Amino acid sequence: MKSREQEYREMFMAEALEGYDAMSQHMSVLEKRPQDEAALGELFRLLHNLKASARAMGHNEIGEVAHRMETIFGQIRAKERPFAGSAVPVLFTGIDVLGSMIRAVGANEPLAENQALLENLDRVVAGEEPVLADDSEVGSEEDATRKLELSDLVYIPIKKLDHLLNLVGELIIDRDRVLTLARELGDTTLQSVTAHLSRLADDLQYSVMDARLVGVGTLFNKFPRVVRDVATAEQKQVELTISGQDIQIDRNILQIITDSLLHLVRNAIGHGIETPAERVKAGKPEVGQLSLSAQTDRDNVLIRISDDGRGIDVERVRRKAVERGVLSRDAASRLSEAEVYSLLFDAGFSTAEQVTEISGRGVGLDVVKLAIDSLGGQVRVESKLGEGTTFFLVLPTSIAVKGALLFELEGHPYALPLMHTDSVVSLSPEKMHIVGGTLLAKVLDENIPVVRLTELLADDDAALPPASRANLTGLQDIIITNYNGRKLGLIVDRFLRQQDIVIKPVSQPLDMIELFGGVTLLGSGQVCLVLDVPALTRLFLARRP
Amino acid sequence: MPDSQAADKKAYKSEVPVQLIVFRLGEEEYGIRIEQVKEVTLTPEIARMPKTPRFVKGIANLRGDIIAIIDLEERFRLRPSNNDPVTGVTYTMALEAKDYTIGIIVREVPQPLSIPASSIEKAPEFIQDLNVHDKYIEGIARLENRIIIVLDMLKLLTPEEIMQLKPKATSSAAAERR
């Protein structure tokens, strides 16, 4: 396993070498056409980028040279001076020196300041005559013996990686099928070959998944700027702390949560953190704290967006829910804090402007929820009035493969993503009771509504018949699902096993049915429907007796 | 619309043959233009998909593609005795709809048949009696003592037709049945 530092250095090297090659090329263009604006602009941009990335990596020697050259090209571009005269050899030397410094970084050698060059560059910047040494020819001799190098890194469009991942997904499905067949046929040679094939397919899968991983930092590092801009616009003082940039996650997952993260950060500054005056009045420091952090949590990545602002006023959200007719006064008062928070994510509720004004939260939270749901992730919120709010996003590391619980219903296999599975229990009907027509099971001191999945999936859309224990005999296999803090027990015919599955989207036109997150093929060749817990939960709420 | 031109025998009396795949639904013979048929196979194992209209038998794995399988006898209520489910060996015709492939389940092996284009007539008015709504019918082919109803699959296989719902509806597909 390569260290992170090593990987960063390789990335820096690849970018810097590419930049160096491009700069050399633009320099030779300028030699022929000193007024070529495209080449001047590119040189300016490349030097600027090199300066920034070199300084970020701590290679200040490169940064110093690049900075001065950038200034000179800025002057040339602004037509303050021509690309001519004694400045030209100095600039060429500068490019050469940058090249050798970049190579020194690659070879892990210490960098030395080139004092003569820096002084000459300073003179050119100041419009003075540079001191050209007689041995300026040495540089060109070095040029002649220089080796040509190709970068060790390649850039690859994410589309190609997507395609590769899809192919791997198909391969895994076929592998499972071949494994099953080999077992059924009982041929030992075939079995050993398939076992090897299986290991290769595993390796390939993990390699492709690994190739798609990027550091969360690639997204997080865009936020200091966002926070500064939003804070300025809102006239608030905010200090942003970022941690866990090195945590690895699939690039497409990062892409999908970009808008959500932006939403949450904007909300935190706009509605969470108070103005300096309000903060002082509340006995808090003037500068609000906002933190973005990532950490691994088993197979998932946990992203936390935390502020020390005014927090969510649970009572006001309750009142708003009643006013908007979402809940009866009675029902609202019985909701737990967690249930109140989950209201914020409901469509229609969260987009309501009044809630935004009062609770300071809610803008587009349903959109955030949808994005996270589409990834099979979870989002939840914790808040303390007057002390701040924290949003937690639990995301899968990779989209391709998901852990799932397989079970059987009326002779057909089904899968439920583990992400939304809380626990599995087997209970006898006597352990459950009926309240208001709904079956309740007590699991770990918590009363959880339970429904027979067959009934829930029945074609009928009318309200469920009142539950009765009469049609339940013997131990019932129950899967407790958890979505948005709402737990629901599903009675299934039989648990099968836990397995990593590759989810394929349901093909048209059946993709209109939102109950299914997709399908997967089992090793037996059987088609297995993957249930979508968010949709199931909504269906249950809609059909509850 | 070249198809309707071909069907209009008064205007165009050409003898270009039309290749059909002919299959039986209920007591009648139906045909589909061969270009629309991707393949015919033994029906693979079908997983019933809850919340779909009854005539959608479910989804099946056809060479790695997961496709929906539908039963047109049930769709058009052509089954002789209504409660008689399809049993035994059946065949599935994989058809290429606009954006997807879909399987149609049939009891007997569908047969290719070449007929002159001029033998396909526009469906007459009495077609209402045939259970199959005339908007899905491209024409009627008369051959000696056979009558083959030529279906316009593209019209029959739109998502709205299959799900029997308006686009963008929720999971309440089943409620809109019939």
From TrEMBL, chain A:
Signal peptide: none annotated. One of its GO terms (biological process) is chemotaxis. The keyword Transferase applies. Keywords: ATP-binding, Chemotaxis, Kinase, Nucleotide-binding, Phosphoprotein, Transferase, Two-component regulatory system. GO terms for cellular component: cytoplasm. Residues 401-542 form the CheW-like domain. The modification Phosphohistidine is found at H48. It catalyses: ATP + protein L-histidine = ADP + protein N-phospho-L-histidine. GO terms for molecular function: ATP binding; phosphorelay sensor kinase activity. InterPro entries: Bact_Chemotaxis_CheA, CheA-like_dim, CheA-like_homodim_sf, CheW-like_dom_sf, CheW-lke_dom, HATPase_C_sf, HATPase_dom, His_kinase_dom. Residues 149-399 form the Histidine kinase domain. Residues 1-105 form the HPt domain. Its EC number is 2.7.13.3. The keyword Kinase applies. PANTHER family: CHEMOTAXIS PROTEIN CHEA, SENSOR HISTIDINE KINASE CHEA. Involved in the transmission of sensory signals from the chemoreceptors to the flagellar motors. CheA is autophosphorylated; it can transfer its phosphate group to either CheB or CheY. This is Chemotaxis protein CheA. It comes from Hymenobacter gummosus.
UniProtKB/TrEMBL annotation, chain B:
SUPFAM superfamilies: CheW-like (SSF50341). Residues 17-162 form the CheW-like domain. Transmembrane segments: none annotated. InterPro entries: CheW, CheW-like_dom_sf, CheW-lke_dom. GO terms for cellular component: cytosol. GO terms for biological process: chemotaxis; signal transduction. This is Chemotaxis protein CheW.
